[in-house]
Amino acid sequence: MFVGCKVRPKLVPRLFHRDEWFDQLSPKAFSEAEFETLLRQHADIIRADSIIVPFKKTVYAGPNSARADLAIIPRDYRTWVVVEVEMSHHGLYSHVLPQVRTLRDALYGQDLASYLLSKSPTLDAAKIGDMLRGDPPDVLVLVNKFDEEWDKELRRYGAHLMVFEVFRSKNNRHIFSIDGGPPRVAQNFLSELSFSLLPRCLSVASPAALDFPTGRTVPILIDDQMTYWERFHTATEVYLTPIGSMPISPGSKYALVLLDGGQHEIRPLGTRGSQ
After folding, report:
1. Fold held by 189-271
2. pTM summary value
C-alpha cells in the first residue's frame, strides 16, 4: 500500500524593507542586457564616487580578444575597473575564466581614451590619458548568484567577484543584496612606484592620481628628509625622476602617499618577492 506524504513547497527568499515584502527573483528572470541596465541605474551602490560607463570595446591579449560590459572609473582616476556581467548558469571554465584571463592580460592603450570619453561628458580627457598610461584595470565579475567555485577560481586569476541579487516587490520596486565588490584603495595612497628600465626613473602605477603636472619640481619626503623630483611621461608611461642622485635603493617597491597638509612622501612597500 502506498502512503503519500505532504511535501512542503520550497520557500522563496524574501526581504522586508520599509513595510514592504520583496521576493528574490530567479537568476533567469532577467536577460544579461536587462541585468546590466539595472546595474547602471544603481551604479552608486556598486562603487561610490565613481562613474560607470558601458565598455563594449574589444581588447586583445596576444591572439585572444574579449569585451567587458562596463568600466568603473573613480573620480580621482586612480584605479579603474572593467566589469564582466555574468549569469550564474554560464560556464565557468568554458566562458567566464577565458574572458577574465584576456581582460586581465589585455593592452589598454591611448586608443581607448576617445571611446571612454564618448560614454560620459563628465570624464576629464587629461586624467583619462594619464589613467591609461598607468597600470591596467582590475577585473570585476558581477554575477547574480554566489558560487563558491567561482569565488575560488576568480581569486586564482586575480579577479574580484561581486554578487548582486535582485528582490522585487508586488509594486514592482527593487532592492538588492550585495556581497563583495571592487578593491578599495586607502585615501592617502596615491600610487605604487617601481624602478623602470629607464635610469634614475620610477614608474608610476596610477599617474592620474598625481596632483602635480609634468615639468614641475615637487618636494617629496623620504625618511624625514626633503628630496626634489620631476614628473614626465612618454606615450605609454609616467615617471618620476629625482633632481640629483637617486635617494632610494632598487630592489623594493614604494608607495607615494599624500600626508595631512598636502605634503608628499615616498615609503617602501616591501622588498621584491614579498609583494
Report:
1. At1g16640 B3 domain (2.40.330)
2. 0.77
Instruction: Give the range among 9-18, 43-52, 153-162, 188-197 with minimum mean pLDDT.
Output: 9-18
User: What pLDDT score does 188 carry?
Assistant: 84
Separation between Cα atoms, residue 267 and residue 256, nearest integer Å:
7
Residue with cell 580578444: 65
Residue 74's contacts (CB-CB under 8 Å, 6 or more residues apart) are 47, 49, 50, 51, 80
CATH class of this structure's domain 14-180: alpha beta
Average pLDDT of the residues in 178-203: 84
Say how far apart CA 196 and CA 207 lie, in whole Å.
15
Do 139 and 160 touch, CB atoms closer than 8 A? yes
pLDDT at 263 (0 to 100): 92
The 3-state DSSP class for residue 227 equals: strand
Cα–Cα distances in angstroms (integers) from residue 190 to residues 21, 109, 205, in the given order: 44, 21, 9
